[in-house]
Amino acid sequence: MLGEVVVKWVEGIQTLLPMCLTGGYFGSLRLAPKQTECFVRSHLEYAIRTGREARFLMCVYFEEHWEDNLEDLRSSLNIQSPPPPRKLD
C-alpha cells in the first residue's frame, strides 16, 4: 500500500485533482505505523520532488516503453530512482 500512496501523491501534485490529493492524504492515514514512519522519512519527499520535477506522466504512453531500459526511461521522464526499500520488521 505504501507504493500506491506514493503514486497518488505524485499524481496529485502533477494534476492537482482533488480525488488524487485526497487519495494520497487519506491513503497515508491508513498506513501501518512502521509504513507511516518510512513514508514520512523518505517517500513523501521523493513523491513531492518527483511530482514537481518529472515530465507530466499522464501524457506518457507507458505501453510504448515496455522494452526500454528502466534507467533510460527514468532519465527521459526526469524521475530519480526511488528511495531504497527498508525492512519494516
From TrEMBL:
Keywords in alphabetical order: Ubiquinone biosynthesis
Top-level taxonomic group: Eukaryota
Any one GO BP annotation for this protein: ubiquinone biosynthetic process
Pfam families, per database record: Coq4
GO CC terms, sorted: mitochondrion
PANTHER family: UBIQUINONE BIOSYNTHESIS PROTEIN, UBIQUINONE BIOSYNTHESIS PROTEIN COQ4 HOMOLOG, MITOCHONDRIAL
Protein name: Uncharacterized protein
Organism field: Schistosoma rodhaini
